From TrEMBL:
Record-given protein name: GNAT family N-acetyltransferase
Residue numbers annotated as active site: Y151, F453
Family classification: Belongs to the acetyltransferase Eis family.
PROSITE patterns registered for this protein in UniProt: GNAT (PS51186)
Domain N-acetyltransferase: residue ranges: 23-192
HAMAP family the record matches: Eis
Pfam families per UniProt: Acetyltransf_17, Acetyltransf_9, SCP2_2
Amino acid sequence: MSFDLRAIPLDATALRTLAAKGLEYRLVDTNDVAAATAWVEADFRGFHNARPRQVSVDYDLAVIADRRVQGVYDPSIADPAIPVATVSSWPTGLSVPGGRSVDAWAVSSVTVSPTHRRRGIARALMLAELENARAAGAALAVLTASEATIYGRFGYAPATRAATVHVDRRRTHWIGPDAPGRVHFVAAEDLRTIAPALARRAVARTTGEIDRWPGILDRALGLVDPDSESSRRKRVVRYDDEHGNPQGFAVFQVLRDPNEHGIVEFDFLAAATDEAERELWRFLVEQDFVTSVRGLLRSVDEPLPWLLEDPRAITVSDVADHLWVRVLDPVAALASRRYGTAGTLAIEVTDPQGHAAGLYELVVDERGRAEVARIDPDRASGTGTGTGSASGSAPGIRLGVHELGAIYLGGVRPSVLARAGRVASSAASAGRAIELADRMFLGQRTPHLSIWF
Ligand SMILES: CC(C)(COP(=O)(O)OP(=O)(O)OC[C@H]1O[C@@H](n2cnc3c(N)ncnc32)[C@H](O)[C@@H]1OP(=O)(O)O)[C@@H](O)C(=O)NCCC(=O)NCCS
């Protein structure tokens, strides 16, 4: 996807709905420093953050320069230059099963001022973002959520989960293979030059990750405000393979009270190979003078328990939904990924907002590649319930757009949603369709997103 993000006109429905409340819905010119700074300040306030220092404002101004930035303004308030609501969005690749990427639309910075809450402002903005995503040609929209109860109503579903992984240092005895490469301490500025390429490779091999933008690497490496206490705490390590080629990096800090053992904490580990992933984990869990290691936003399916003699050295907490997916174009979304088994499945999707509603036929070949077609319901036959296949003989499932988003990356099996009464098989399929859907949608890796956006 490449086009002028600002060329998409403001959504007419949102303009009208908000105008009826005396509010102005505007595209923010990110070159207008005063307007963009006011938007950043509203975003900080919306997330209950401290007022930003100039260095944070400058960082955010650079990040939003590559985004579509919108605000809602109330001319009647004391400071009408500060928006009462914010949202930003941009096109991104999302890694999907089969080592492929789908065109997605990332939505971020959704805030509404506490003075203007529960009047339908977020609703107007979120519905407009679905239109923006479609105008941009995205197959689906993605976000990470501060609360799990907000976005389901707009068709988003939790598609990946993340967890905090704790490792008890005293019980860490490594039984994994010895790697031929080495871990080096490196300066953040030096790593920064190769970080984008390593991050790209790490994202490409992990279903559920989205493309990294330059600013997130600066922030992860502590380069946004290098003299701040939190940046100075960061340590950067790089793993080079036996040929001396960098294959991954991690950023960690050791939290510790004077004279006490510390806790290693990390939230950024980018590995382009399994070997790099193992060795960076090994480095982190084999530190001395620490009691434990804490990995944030880790996969719920880490290989770590299989690398330690005592898998009970590991405990997992804070398992929660992380990436939310909202399918907009089922044909493009379903055709973008690879599947676990060959077969033909009819999929009937309902969608309160209409975007993804319809009957689709997913035909997967022996190599896991898909052809997807939207089927005219009048031509579909076989079940008499509206769910069938173009050929009339394929098994079929019925589900809402929310459930489609949940199963899309393979993060939950369709049969689990069937047990919850949220996915049904067509009468003619008698459960066969659910079993086939399970095998088709299963990915090689448990999907995982390791950043907030
Ligand atoms: C979340 C937030 C943006 C909602 O804004 P809002 O303008 O008050 O929301 P709306 O009035 O448009 O409400 C839309 C719907 O979402 C529901 N909703 C809104 N906020 C909710 C919340 N925090 N939890 C659960 N439901 C919520 C409303 O009840 C409403 O439901 P309905 O349309 O089915 O009746 C606002 O509360 C906020 O800024 N929160 C702090 C920042 C934040 O958490 N942002 C989300 C980032 S991921």
